[in-house]
Design brief:
heterodimer, A: 590 residues, mainly alpha, two-stranded antiparallel ribbon, 25 helices, B: 113 residues
């Protein structure tokens, strides 16, 4: 995707890449200097400029040969630092801008300065722009060390977001997140040092020509990959994710879950597809996807067993992160090398779809929480009547995630399924289908509760402002129509695909996903829920049959296993094990 | 034994000790110190990488030095943020444990473990 030869000149429009970093950072400084009163106006100004920059990159990129380059100070690499954007960067820049904009509208009332005596609003707006600046840097950075600095900036902006409300519980979650993320970034830095020592450059394009399968490069690849996995919270390195994502305020959770885990995932894609394409990756790719399958499995089962809605959505993020890693084995060509093709496009669209849908979902859950005063799943009966907008947003975002046409997830799934057929790796097709069913399961489960009539009229603790709900709804609708967007100038997607999205076959697949989801929800959710009652009222006994009890027992076993994995020493040992296994799997292939 | 081997072994030892401390030490403060040890190991590694530039006729390769300085700043900020969070946690709960179960009975552990 990146240019083959290192560009020695700045392309027209390359300056936009500088602006995409400088504008949010300038916003942060300005907000800090001007103080609490001007924090929101500055943020809204910066966000509108940022949206314009992202749109301009989208427009200019196809016109300038598919990539934009800016050489800082006109020094070409390896001495200078280059900023580069390709199709992947452009769509991620645009997604980030859209999600940040929606979250800002959502947060405009919650985090109004002067409305609360705490410093939370001031901090929130500063952190929002800081996250944006860091993410944009990740998307356009042209060398590994800039990526490291951007990764750290992202962590430093994300960690305080977790503990905005300052409760002991969230402070603990933030500290846990920070410490674990630091291990990840040090491992990444170690890999960077090794690569520099071997090849004398950190520039991505130059490295991609020089890297060969020698021990030092293999160790660097293993170290950097496992560091990034820790930051992306891929199972079993997810100890920090559930408490951090579930404990933060709704707007912050939307950013954390929708965007921040995508930052390190994007670096991972850059690393494997642009820096290390010369490394034989067959076993490593299978290993990564196996971890992903584990994440789908464990994350979904534990999500179905959660009592609190926010924790359910946080665990669903864990499962969806696993889904992203399925692209690695599907991107392999016949010789076992990773190719930038359809699988990469599918994975990236899945990431974008998850970013928009999950942000909308967290915002909807935040509104439900604010409206009802709690987020116990068993207690949200009647929420659909009391808070129709929020429940509808949750439903739409959920549909987008589980792959209703023409959502991004359905397009991504279709792309990945085609690749499983092409490469003959049918087992990953099974995992993809089961993943869709699990997503359907927890969406259906929550909707069944929310739509069932309440025993007594629902008393609202507070009525969430309409602007809040509309921002979330707009984002959910965005993700529901992602499949219709013109992706071809940016990502390699065959034209013939769009006809496949609509049709009898697609509909049958969808029906199978939803029905499978309902079955999973009935079997695996331990709380009394309306689904079991309505579907099988006549055979209540069969529902409580030994089979269901066995499923529940299995579920509680998985939950206990997850609890053990989320203890600190266990997670650390997992981390070392993942590093060693990665190194072994790459070594074994040479 | 050349200087590169000696410093390389030191770097490896610091990385190993730091990693062990980060994973095994129960208290956040020890984890933070272990992270700094781990970071120092990596910076030392960068320093050795710079020595390799001497082979090309330079006194030393300046790029790793610049990277180390940036890395030190980043590690310093990380430490400051972690200490800030830890202090705030201690102010609120009176203990510094990361284990929320043990924290169910706050102030039961005066030593702050």
């Amino acid at each position: 995707m990146l240019p083959q030869a290192p560009a020695l000149v700045t392309t027209a429009g390359g300056f936009l890449l500088v602006l995409s970093i400088v504008v949010p950072v300038a916003g942060v400084l300005l907000e800090f200097a001007l103080g609490e009163r001007y924090v929101r106006p500055v943020a809204s100004a910066v966000i509108s400029v940022g949206l314009a920059i992202a749109a301009a990159v989208l427009v200019l990129l196809p016109r300038s040969d598919g990539h934009l380059v800016y050489l800082l100070g006109a020094w070409p690499p390896p001495l200078g630092v280059a900023l580069r954007a390709d199709g992947l960067s452009a769509v991620m820049l645009a997604t980030t801008a859209v999600v940040i904009c929606a979250v800002a509208i959502f947060a405009a009332t919650d985090f109004r300065p002067q409305s609360v005596e705490a410093r939370a609003p001031f901090a929130f707006w500063i952190l929002l722009l800081a996250v944006w600046g860091a993410l944009n840097t990740i998307f356009v950075a042209g060398d590994l060390f800039t990526l490291y600095v951007a990764l750290e900036l992202l962590t430093f902006a994300a960690v305080p977001m977790v503990s905005l409300d300052g409760r002991a519980e969230t402070l603990r979650a933030a500290l846990r997140y920070l410490l674990f993320a630091l291990i990840g970034s040090v491992l990444y830095l170690m890999g960077t040092a090794l690569l520099y020592g071997l090849y004398g450059t950190l520039d991505i394009v130059l490295l991609s020509h020089r890297v060969s399968a020698e021990p030092g490069a293999l160790i660097a690849a293993a170290l950097m990959t496992s560091g990034l996995l820790a930051k992306t919270a891929l199972f079993p390195l997810h100890l920090w994710l559930p408490p951090a994502h579930a404990g933060a305020p709704a707007a912050a959770s939307a950013i954390l879950s929708g965007l921040i885990v995508k930052g390190s995932f994007f670096i991972l894609l850059r690393l494997w597809f642009d820096v290390l394409p010369a490394l034989p990756g067959f076993t490593a790719a299978q290993f990564l996807a196996t971890l992903g399958a584990g994440a789908i499995f464990v994350g979904s089962i534990v999500a179905l067993r959660q009592e609190r809605l926010k924790l359910l959505v946080a665990y669903s993020t864990l499962a969806q992160i696993g889904y992203l890693f399925l692209l690695f084995p599907l991107a392999l060509d016949a010789s076992g090398r990773l190719q930038t093709g359809q699988a990469l496009a599918g994975g990236l669209i899945q990431a974008i779809s998850h970013a928009t849908a999950k942000a909308a979902m967290f915002m909807a859950v935040g509104s439900i929480y604010a409206g009802l005063g709690h987020d116990r799943i068993t207690g949200i009966r009647g929420a659909a009547r009391a808070l129709p907008l929020s429940v509808m947003t949750f439903a739409l975002a959920g549909f987008a995630l589980m792959g209703i046409q023409p959502g991004g997830a359905s397009l991504a799934k279709e792309l990945l399924l085609q690749e499983t057929a092409r490469t003959g790796q049918w087992w990953w097709a099974g995992v993809l289908q089961v993943g869709g069913m699990f997503t359907a399961a927890y969406v259906v489960l929550v909707l069944a509760h929310a739509l069932s009539p309440p025993d007594q009229p629902v008393a609202l603790a507070a009525r969430p402002p309409r602007g809040n709900g509309l921002a979330a709804l707009a984002l959910a609708l965005c993700s529901l129509f992602l499949g219709l967007l013109p992706w071809e100038p940016y990502l390699p997607i065959p034209y013939a695909l769009e006809s496949k999205l609509f049709g009898v076959e697609a509909f049958v697949k969808l029906l199978a996903t939803v029905l499978g989801g309902v079955a999973l929800a009935i079997l695996l959710s331990p709380w009394s829920h309306p689904l079991a009652g309505t579907v099988a009222r006549n055979d209540l006994k069969t529902v409580r049959s030994p089979f269901r009890r066995a499923c529940l027992g299995f579920g509680s076993l998985v939950e206990r296993g997850d609890h053990v994995l989320r203890q600190w020493p266990a997670a650390g040992i997992c981390m070392l094990a993942v590093t060693l296994l990665l190194a072994a799997s790459i070594f074994g292939a040479t | 034994m050349s200087a590169v081997t000696v410093f390389g072994s030191y770097a490896a030892a610091a990385v190993g000790l730091g990693l062990y401390g980060l994973i095994a030490a129960p208290q956040p403060l020890r984890k933070i110190i272990a992270f700094n040890l781990l970071g120092s190991g990596v910076f030392l590694l960068f320093g050795i990488v710079g020595r390799r530039g001497a082979a090309a006729g330079f006194g030393n390769d300046p790029v790793p030095q610049a990277l180390v300085i940036t890395g030190v700043v980043v590690a310093f900020s990380a430490t400051a943020l972690a200490i800030g969070l830890l202090l705030r946690l201690f102010q609120i709960t009176g203990s510094t444990t990361l284990n929320s179960r043990a924290a169910a009975s706050p102030r039961s552990d005066p030593s702050g473990n």
